Amino acid sequence: MRYLLLLPIFAAPLQDAPPLTERWVAAFYRAAWDAETGEGLTHPSGGDALQDHPESFKDFSYRRASWHRRNLEEMGEAGLDVALCEFADNGEAVKALVQALEESSKEFRRVPRVAPAVRDPAAAAAFLKAVPKSYRAAVGGRDLVWLFPSKAPDLRALGALDVFKVGDAAWKPDLEAVTGGAFDGPRDLKAVTLGPGFKDGSSRIRGRDEGTWYDRSWYAAMRIKPRLVAIESWNRFDEGSTICPTKEFEKGLLAKTKKYAELFRRGDEIERPKGKYTSAIGVSYHLKFEPPHEGLRPVDSPAAPFEVVSLAGQALLRAKEVPGQATRILAFAIDDSYAYYERRDYEVQLQILDKGPGQVSLEYDAAAPGKGETDRTRRAAEPFYFTDSGQWAVATFKLPEAAFANRQEGGADFRLVTKNRGMAIRWVQVRAK
Question: Most-buried pick from 324, 335, 354, 398 (CB within 10 A)?
């Protein structure tokens, strides 16, 4: 059997580089700001365009080699193998980048290799032509190119480049990856994205939670064991996802990133980060209490809408009908501090209104598919059959080899499914066995 060995090499003395391994770490690197002209610093309608801010605005310009050099050397300090440059189509930024690489190399500074991150193969080609080969990231002798999603991927133009492709599935890459890990967390792929958090000024926010979101994301990545981890981001100041030194967080993530990168390259794992429910005997959602969620919450999605209604003076959770869909679904997410990327047996119990014929199935995110199944994120437990008693009944589901890795729609860990009938519950609880 043949194995492709990834060899991320630094533009620095070999004795300063970490051991070459099959695993490597990259970060998205943006060049969109110029403090001298004000470019990129304010919204078109006015107001600060940055969510995170640099430690200083002195020499804060993508046109300056000194700015790129500072970023590259700090990336080296953070243990990064590759800088994924999102400015391949910006000639001024690329020219300054090359100058910075040359200066750092002459002084034997430890810096990452660079690669273009693009939607257009022509921009990748221009970047690779402008950057000397000694500074470019390569896999098996082929230059690395990260490919973002595109409405009309130009496969013909991409085919003219002899490159190692990572990115969106539409590009038919060597390693498939899904962007958005800073918000959604790592996906179970050979190349994963992750980040410390996300906020772009809209209502779409992933809080940093004092660093625990970043820790959990690295924990998941090490459990997935991909070949590449791409951090979102080194310096997307406008998305609040930076790991570079900032006014808000100083150099707080450089040492942590270096530690996690070294562990990942060695193939090690870390303990699941602790949180509110780490020592809990179980988690629950119970409408008798306010708030009802104790480590377990329903997940609203287009396929699994829900509502809380009152019946005979008691609150209950009810699956809403989806037009054109025979099934009704209630989906739930377990707090990551209780269970996340495990391989353990659990039991789910719930109180459900036993009215009408049919059954309710439970599909859960598992470490392996069930017998005769192929989708481990939809592994089926033994169903509960309604008896039409008209009373509240307790349904119990056994879940062997559960993973609870947030891989169902909306980040859910399991879902309850009925067909051609409604579904209403009062409480649900999860316990490890």
Answer: 335
Q: How far apart are CA 72 and CA 251, in angstroms?
A: 14
Residue range(s) in the chain whose domain bears CATH number 2.60.120.260: 282-432
Cα angle 257, 259, 262; round to 5? 105
pTM of the model: 0.86
Encoding tokens for residue 375?
């989708």
State the Cα–Cα distance between residues 167 and 400, nearest whole angstrom.
33
Q: Are 239 and 222 in contact (CB under 8 A)?
A: no
Whether domain 282-432 has CATH 2.60.40.10:
no
Instruction: List, for residues 205-224, the tens digit of each pLDDT value.
Output: 999 999 999 999 999 999 99
Bridge partners, 191 (sequence order) = 228
* Residue ranges of the chain that CATH labels 3.20.20.80: 14-266
User: What DSSP assignment string belongs to 4-61?
Assistant: PPP----SS-GGGSPPP-S-EEEEEE----BTTTTBTTB-TTSSB--SS--S--TT-B
Residue 149: how many other CB atoms lie within 10 Å = 14
Give dist(CA 376, CA 329) in Å, integer: 18
Residues 20-36: what's their mean pLDDT? 89
DSSP3 helix / strand / coil % (the chain, rounded to 5)? 20, 30, 50
